[in-house]
Amino acid sequence: MADTSRPDHLPNLRADRQPPHPSWLPRQRHGTTPQMIGRYPDFDVLESKDMWDEATRKVVLARLEPTGPLRFFTPAEEPTLRAFCDIVLAQDHEPRVPVAEFVDAKLADGQLDGYQYADMPDDRDTWRLVLRGLDEAAAQRYGKASFADAEVPTQLALVDQFSRGRLQGGTWSQLNENRAWSVCMRMTLSAFYSHPWAWNEIGFGGPAYPRGYMRLGGPSGPASVREPFETRGATDEDPVEMVQEEGY
Known about the structure:
Layout: H1 54-62, H2 78-89, H3 99-108, H4 123-142, H5 152-163, H6 177-192, H7 196-202, H8 222-225, H9 239-246
Helix pairs in contact: 2-5, 3-6, 4-5
């Protein structure tokens, strides 16, 4: 595991201003995490499944079932969807949380968020336009057949430009780019962090019903407020403080 006290651990002090590859994290020893790395290598949230009520257990365990073919996105859109989900979540090898499938199912079933920006199209249309716009930008700016066909550095550059509202013209003229980024990332992140493998990665103890929590409002300090079912992380750095130090 990398020494996170070194200054080159912080992206703003690294030559390429990019965070280190997540492989600096410990190898997962118990349970499953995305790419089998994580901050809590001996934690498996599924050991608590017998403490959940039947309805909760059914919902959570269903997320581990094999996924079927996409129902909303077309075969032509699928490669760019998968490439986008992988690059924004740094999932570059198996096991992966099936984010593309989760996003596809939500859109296919019309399970939207219940609100929509006034200057934006329906979220389903937004996703299709974003994928088309990424393919256009990959072709026009980098000479690639599509976003999915681009090398990882090119995909990272395009996603960075998208996040900063710097992809303009063509399909992008039909979207408020900043809001489109928000729509796509909100759905992508909610899909990723709904999965037990992601919970293992961050040490989340899963549903608290009907077990509940015991240490609310206790003395300060990570050791004193840890629940009995929680484990200590392999590193002591506070991730919130690390992000603030990095200037994000």
